[in-house]
């Protein structure tokens, strides 16, 4: 696979990475396109297939794994798969754009390992686990047991932060947005090293 650059944003659920990624996508000078992940989970609220996610059945997802159609994938929770389809990255590169990911910590690190010279891996850190819990409850999209599952996972995810190129602490959204914009701008405008 040859093409543009890869910008990975990973974080525990509720850290604000999606808000940051949406902000970056509105900055036309960055020339970014969002990589739509595939998932076997159910749609939430107003989510739209092929816009928010490629919603696949567990069976379809497993078939694509067997056929080596993913750049990276993971079973995040039992029978709850997430992954990046190779054809999605190729689609974006054909548009002449850089790929921006809003993905799970493990998936983000996998992409960084596969394409170290072409990837900027950013970890968005919440101010605290308590603040994370408050943010997840405010969403009103999941049950308390799901929230508790996400909080338990967040501790393990926070331990991976040093493996990323950069950590943005999201205790002040405006500051986090500015920091992300500067980082990504510098990365996409830097001379690409050939692997």
Explain the overall architecture.
The chain is α/β, with parallel strands linked by helices and 195 residues long. It has one domain: Rossmann fold (3-Layer(aba) Sandwich), CATH 3.40.50. The chain is 41% helix and 22% strand. It contains seven helices and nine strands. It has helices spanning 17-25, 58-66, 86-94, 105-114, 129-139, 144-158, 173-189; strands at residues 6-10, 32-34, 38-39, 54-55, 70-77, 80-85, 98-102, 119-125, 166-169. The strands form two sheets. A five-stranded parallel β-sheet has the order 2-7-1-8-9, sandwiched between helices. Strands 4-3-6-5 form a four-stranded mixed β-sheet, with helices on both faces. Strand 5 (70-77) and strand 6 (80-85) form a beta hairpin. Helix 5 runs antiparallel to helix 6. The protein is globular. The termini are close together. The mean pLDDT is 91.
Shape: globular
CATH architecture: 3-Layer(aba) Sandwich
Order of strands, widest sheet: 2-7-1-8-9
Tell me the radius of gyration: 16 Å
Low-confidence stretches: none
Which topology does CATH recognise? Answer: Rossmann fold
Largest sheet entry:
5 strands, parallel
Q: How would you name the CATH homologous superfamily?
A: P-loop containing nucleotide triphosphate hydrolases
CATH class: Alpha Beta
Estimate nothing, just give the exact number of structural domains: 1
Oligomeric state: single chain
**Rounded average pLDDT:** 91
| Total of DSSP H or I helical runs spanning 4+ residues | 7
Helix/strand order, N-terminal first: EHEEEHEEHEHEHHEH
Query: What level of helicity do the residues show?
Result: 40-55%
Gap between N and C termini: 12 Å
Q: What would you call the structural class?
A: alpha/beta
The fraction of residues assigned to DSSP E strands is: 15-25%
- Count every beta strand, where a strand is a DSSP E run of 2 or more residues: 9
């Amino acid at each position: 696979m040859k093409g543009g650059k890869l910008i990975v944003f990973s974080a525990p659920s509720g850290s604000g990475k999606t808000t940051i990624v949406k902000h970056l996508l509105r900055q036309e000078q960055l020339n970014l396109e969002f990589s739509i992940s595939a998932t076997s989970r159910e749609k939430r609220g107003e989510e739209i297939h092929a816009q928010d996610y490629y919603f696949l059945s567990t069976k379809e997802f497993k078939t694509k794994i067997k056929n080596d159609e993913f750049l990276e994938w993971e079973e995040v929770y039992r029978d709850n798969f997430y992954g990046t389809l190779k054809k999605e990255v190729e689609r974006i590169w054909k548009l002449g754009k850089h790929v921006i990911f809003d993905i799970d910590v493990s998936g983000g690190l996998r992409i960084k390992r596969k394409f170290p010279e072409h990837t900027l891996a950013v970890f968005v850190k919440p101010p605290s686990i308590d603040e994370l819990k408050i943010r997840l409850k405010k969403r009103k999209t999941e049950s308390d047991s799901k929230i508790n599952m996400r909080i338990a996972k967040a501790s393990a995810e926070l331990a991976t932060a040093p493996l990323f190129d950069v950590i943005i602490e999201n205790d002040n959204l405006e500051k986090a947005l500015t920091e992300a914009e500067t980082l990504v701008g510098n990365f996409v405008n830097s001379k690409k090293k050939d692997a």
